[in-house]
Amino acid sequence: MQRTLCLSFLLLISWAFLGAAKKPNLICILVDDLGYSDLSSFGGTDIRTPAIDSLMKAGLRLDQFYANCTVCTPTRASLLTGRYPDIVGAPGVIRQRPSDSWGYFKPSGPTLPDMMKKAGYHTGMVGKWHLGFESPNIPNDRGFDFFHGFLADMMDDYWTHLRGGVNWMRHNKDTIKPKGHATEVFTRWAIDYVKKQAADKKKPFFLYLAYNAPHFPIQPPKDWLEKVTAREPQLNKKRATNVAFVEHMDHEIGKFLDAVKDIGIAKDTLIVFTSDNGGSLPHGALNGELRGGKQDHWEGGIRVPTCAVWPGVISPGRSNELGITMDLLPTFCEIAGVEVEHEIDGKSLVPIWLKGAKGDPNRTLIWVRREGNRRYQGRPYYAIRRGDWKLLQNTAFEPMQLVNLAKDPKEAKPTPPNGKIANELTRALMDHLQRAGKIPWQKP
Closest Cα to residue 411, out of 376, 430, 383? Predict the structure, then answer.
């Protein structure tokens, strides 16, 4: 606690020295199901993503940053609480039909927007929520002063914005019927939000901008698909459609980033870009040399393209230190100068981002996902990493497998979980299960 207060004080002095007259604005851009190599800056050869590439180049690229889960809801719960998802009742996807829902969001303490409000920030969210459909689990009840977005999980269609035939688009708590492609709608709303906050000038703002794209259904505007098809005639229809979808999203993110610059707040703003999980291989995404994809505990399902950009404060470059979605809450809190006094599982990345410090080489990270249907049958499955060692399964019905990521980064030769390392990881996972087993995940 004393170290956090001291470092926050030193940060404030450093920002003053660098010319920052106030606390920085904080923007978290979360995209949905982005493939690890579906950026040209991450090795994609058939895709062009200049806006996100420019972010990666302008800031600190985090090459070992993980999503908290292989799917949507749990990662979002971890982002907002700084906790493992099963510790806050969200080990699986929350859906509008109770028979298909595998979580109930119940924060164990203040949420990230709650903490930002405590630090003097205006808090806004634009885009996909996916943590509940009714009070108290809607954005305005969980710390956001402003919400303009979509409460549900995936959209049935990016132009109709429905899910299961129901309209889940909201302006704060009011139902609305916007027109246009959802990616463009969210960009427009996000630009409107930052313009208003910049003009107000009363307080810094925290914006959580969560795109549905490139989550299926893969629906790029027609002209974007035509452009990709003409440029990359070798691609099959599924891959070309996914490429066009990501490129359209990149273009919209570029419009938002341009607006931040044009408003004149770029130097006073920290922007973090990340994804909620890896790319969905059946829908044309690619995860480069990483094995697997969305739903898997292989690296392709949980390692995500991520960067932190703060001009003049965070030095551009690359970091190979571990990070995970739940680390963003304590990181943002430390930067905002507010102390985290309740229990969390995440760790602040400020020393890594601002000072180039090393992280804990033996840090333990755990993943869980619970899901229904014939493949999962409502049962959870797990992975755990400590140092270079990783123990994992991809359904509850397969045995655990052991991988050394330093020696086998492609996870091509997993072994049975025998020996001292496997025993230690198993014990650490069981300890977590005993802790998480106390937390209900069904709606009371």
Answer: 383
The three-state DSSP-derived secondary structure of 327-351 is: HHHHHHHHHHCCCCCCCCCCCCCHH
Helices 182-200 and 237-263: angle between axes, nearest 10 degrees: 10
- Of 81, 120, 74, the C-alpha closest to 338 is 120
Classified by CATH at the fold level, domain 2-355 comes out as Alkaline Phosphatase, subunit A (3.40.720)
Distance of alpha carbon 183 from alpha carbon 277, whole angstroms: 18
Eight-class DSSP state of 358:
-
The pair of structure tokens assigned to 177 is 């019927």
Q: What is the DSSP string of 1-13?
A: -HHHHHHHHHHHH
DSSP 184-230: HHHHHHHHHHHHHHHHH-SS-EEEEEE--TTSSS----HHHHHHHHH
Closest CA to 232 of 284, 278, 277, 182: 284
Q: In this predicted model, what pLDDT tens digit does every residue of 184-210 receive, in sequence order?
A: 999 999 999 999 999 988 899 999 999
- Answer whether 0.90 is exceeded by the pTM: yes
With b for 16 or more beta-carbon neighbours within 10 A and e for fewer, the 387-404 pattern comes to bebbbbbbbbeeebbbbb
> What integer is the mean pLDDT of 424-444?
96
What sign does the CA torsion over 184, 190, 192, 195 have? negative
Mean pLDDT of the residues in the chain? 95
**Cross-strand partners of 60:** 308, 317
Q: Are 417 and 428 in contact (CB under 8 A)?
A: no
Residue with tokens 């409502």: 378
| 311-344: pLDDT as tens digits | 999 999 999 999 999 999 999 999 999 999 999 9
Which helix (H) or strand (E) segment is 290 a member of? none
